[in-house]
Amino acid sequence: MRNSMGVPPAAGFAVLHLIAVLAGARTTLGDPGLPMIWPAAGVAVLWLVNRRESRWRWVDMVAIGVITFGGLAAAGAGIEVALLEIAPAMVGPMVFIVAAGRWLPGLWAGPDGGRSLARLGELWRLLLCAALASVTGTLLHVVGELAAGADGGFSGLGTVTRLVRDTVAVVLFGVALRRIGHLHRNRWAELRGLGRDRWLECSAIVAVSGVAYWYVFSSHEDLPVGFLLIPLTVWAALRMPTSVAIVHVVVFGFVALLYTIGGHGPYARVADIGTTALLIQLYVGIVGAVGFALALVRDERDSLIQRLKVSEQEATDRATMMTTVVDSMTEGLAILDHTGRLVLRNPAAGRLLGSASSVTGTVALGSDHGFFRPDGTPLTDAELPHVRALAGEDAAPMDVLVRNAAVPEGRVVRFNVARLALVTGPYHVVVVFHDVTADRRHRDELMSFAGRVAHNLLNPLTTIEGWSEVLEQELAGYQPAERVERIQRASARMRTFLNGLLSYTAARDGKLMPTTVNLALLVGDIVNSRLDHAESTGAAPPYFEVGRLDPVDADPVLLRQLLENLIDNSLRMMAPGVGPYLAISCQPAPKRMVRIDILDNSVGIPPGKRHEIWTNFHRDKGSDSNGLELAICKRIVERHGGTIEAVANPHGTGNRMSFTLPAGRSAYARALAPTR
């Protein structure tokens, strides 16, 4: 891999490292003294970071040690001093590489030069990695001094100063060099994007900083006011581009060090050279930490603001798109909060409900909008599917007749509801409205037509049955009589089917004649008829367990048909060889209703078909029913204002058919009611 100038990276870093060593060796404070500026630490770290994946990285590490020794020797530092710096120069950067690979993966390394510092947390981890590298290098230097028996012995102050110096050098020069490389690679786009006002402000910051540093470190160096220069770093970090702010920190930190090395400034006035060296290193470190931290925080804030703007624009675009989609829907859509009030609705919802002004925001969607059952009986708020969903119940789709001033002729609307759970706040309910008026009218017309056809077909069927009986008598004893029996069986099946159609038509369209019905007496009569039928056919008699049965207000004819259909359905579903068992009882239900339960020990209804069985012409495989018995039951119950359902038998195998009817309200009903 070569850089844009065609120079191998290792050779380029070797030259840069040699320059850094030669320059730093001439910045000693005292004689012989410790170099106060040591950019070689930052260059060595960048060198090994960029060569992390190379198989020659160990050669690079050795090269760093050789160049450090040669540079110091050439600068007149002495052979012994140069030898002591070899191990720290080699091992310290390698420790940084290991630590950064764990805590800062991808920093300054990888495709396109890796990534730069982007967050404040990364700066603290970078400082920690630099500190570990500095501690390692400092310990190696101290061990080397002790082993060589260097003059002067061990100096704790000098050791701390060296540790701070190397940490500051890695962070300041490493970050600065990496940033300059980033700017060059991106053709200085960050600087070219500045406007005239920002350039003027940056120039003003540099000019003010230059005057201030001259004033503190040269003109009035006797005044201990070095801390007054920190606000300039804050100003630069908050207003300058990050790259310029980093250069500002490095340049003026370098200026402060040079003044102090030359014996100028408030820190040079300290009597002890070791204390002076430590103070100026701490000052540069603090200025660098403040500048870098503020610049990164500002960049992170700007990045978050930019992402927020992008997210806001994307959210606005999505909202606009969703609004357009929702408004263009032919189905109505409404969202209600946990109190039942509308928070959103589309125009189609207003058209379908017939009163756009009454379904706008913050208005409850209740029965006062003119909601009725399809048969015309009023609906209460508690019976509406979205109210039931808000109460935590499972609400199946429901047909609702909407009739108000805007829709005087009425419209059948199907309500489909679903709960909408939100991350914050209470849940909402989504209601989708479908206009099913034409579909229901077509279905009703079809069933009416089927009823009329069934009625008209009964007359020729009666003729066929009559003549087949005559033909059977005349052919008695002959072989063709068996074929006549087939005609009679087919006629019987056809009569059963036609009677079912007529029963459904009567249950759907016939006028209700409700009265108080002694339910116990009616069930007893049906039970006796089923026992007599089993005895006459030689079948196993079913066992009935009849519990408490309260009187109800219902049409006696339709109620008998309802009970007979449900009981016969249970008997048909018995498994072969199983003795039929049915338990019939009732219990009070809300809204002055009575719930009647019929439990059996049949094979049971699969969970996925417990709603499907109530539809027209539903027949299980192998069943001899006409597919209308349970649909008739559902229609009869709904016309009486009740509900019907099929669930698993809670006490064993089989089903529990449950339906509700109005409780008997007359004095006769109270007299029939069992003693409680």
From TrEMBL:
<keyword id="KW-0472">Membrane</keyword>
<dbReference type="GO" id="GO:0005524">
    <property type="term" value="F:ATP binding"/>
</dbReference>
<dbReference type="InterPro" id="IPR036890">
    <property type="entry name" value="HATPase_C_sf"/>
</dbReference>
<dbReference type="GO" id="GO:0030295">
    <property type="term" value="F:protein kinase activator activity"/>
</dbReference>
<keyword id="KW-0067">ATP-binding</keyword>
<dbReference type="InterPro" id="IPR007895">
    <property type="entry name" value="MASE1"/>
</dbReference>
<dbReference type="Pfam" id="PF00512">
    <property type="entry name" value="HisKA"/>
</dbReference>
<dbReference type="InterPro" id="IPR005467">
    <property type="entry name" value="His_kinase_dom"/>
</dbReference>
<feature type="domain" description="Histidine kinase">
    <location>
        <begin position="452"/>
        <end position="665"/>
    </location>
</feature>
<dbReference type="InterPro" id="IPR003594">
    <property type="entry name" value="HATPase_dom"/>
</dbReference>
<dbReference type="GO" id="GO:0000156">
    <property type="term" value="F:phosphorelay response regulator activity"/>
</dbReference>
<feature type="transmembrane region" description="Helical">
    <location>
        <begin position="245"/>
        <end position="261"/>
    </location>
</feature>
<dbReference type="InterPro" id="IPR003661">
    <property type="entry name" value="HisK_dim/P_dom"/>
</dbReference>
<dbReference type="InterPro" id="IPR050351">
    <property type="entry name" value="BphY/WalK/GraS-like"/>
</dbReference>
<dbReference type="Pfam" id="PF02518">
    <property type="entry name" value="HATPase_c"/>
</dbReference>
<keyword id="KW-0902">Two-component regulatory system</keyword>
<feature type="transmembrane region" description="Helical">
    <location>
        <begin position="198"/>
        <end position="217"/>
    </location>
</feature>
<feature type="transmembrane region" description="Helical">
    <location>
        <begin position="123"/>
        <end position="144"/>
    </location>
</feature>
<feature type="domain" description="PAS">
    <location>
        <begin position="318"/>
        <end position="354"/>
    </location>
</feature>
<keyword id="KW-1003">Cell membrane</keyword>
<feature type="transmembrane region" description="Helical">
    <location>
        <begin position="61"/>
        <end position="84"/>
    </location>
</feature>
<keyword id="KW-1133">Transmembrane helix</keyword>
<dbReference type="GO" id="GO:0000155">
    <property type="term" value="F:phosphorelay sensor kinase activity"/>
</dbReference>
<keyword id="KW-0808">Transferase</keyword>
<feature type="transmembrane region" description="Helical">
    <location>
        <begin position="273"/>
        <end position="297"/>
    </location>
</feature>
<dbReference type="Pfam" id="PF05231">
    <property type="entry name" value="MASE1"/>
</dbReference>
<dbReference type="InterPro" id="IPR036097">
    <property type="entry name" value="HisK_dim/P_sf"/>
</dbReference>
<dbReference type="InterPro" id="IPR004358">
    <property type="entry name" value="Sig_transdc_His_kin-like_C"/>
</dbReference>
<dbReference type="InterPro" id="IPR000014">
    <property type="entry name" value="PAS"/>
</dbReference>
<keyword id="KW-0597">Phosphoprotein</keyword>
<protein>
    <recommendedName>
        <fullName>Sensor-like histidine kinase SenX3</fullName>
        <ecNumber>2.7.13.3</ecNumber>
    </recommendedName>
</protein>
<dbReference type="GO" id="GO:0007234">
    <property type="term" value="P:osmosensory signaling via phosphorelay pathway"/>
</dbReference>
<keyword id="KW-0418">Kinase</keyword>
<dbReference type="GO" id="GO:0005886">
    <property type="term" value="C:plasma membrane"/>
</dbReference>
<dbReference type="InterPro" id="IPR035965">
    <property type="entry name" value="PAS-like_dom_sf"/>
</dbReference>
<keyword id="KW-0812">Transmembrane</keyword>
<feature type="transmembrane region" description="Helical">
    <location>
        <begin position="156"/>
        <end position="177"/>
    </location>
</feature>
<feature type="transmembrane region" description="Helical">
    <location>
        <begin position="90"/>
        <end position="111"/>
    </location>
</feature>
<feature type="transmembrane region" description="Helical">
    <location>
        <begin position="33"/>
        <end position="49"/>
    </location>
</feature>
<keyword id="KW-0547">Nucleotide-binding</keyword>
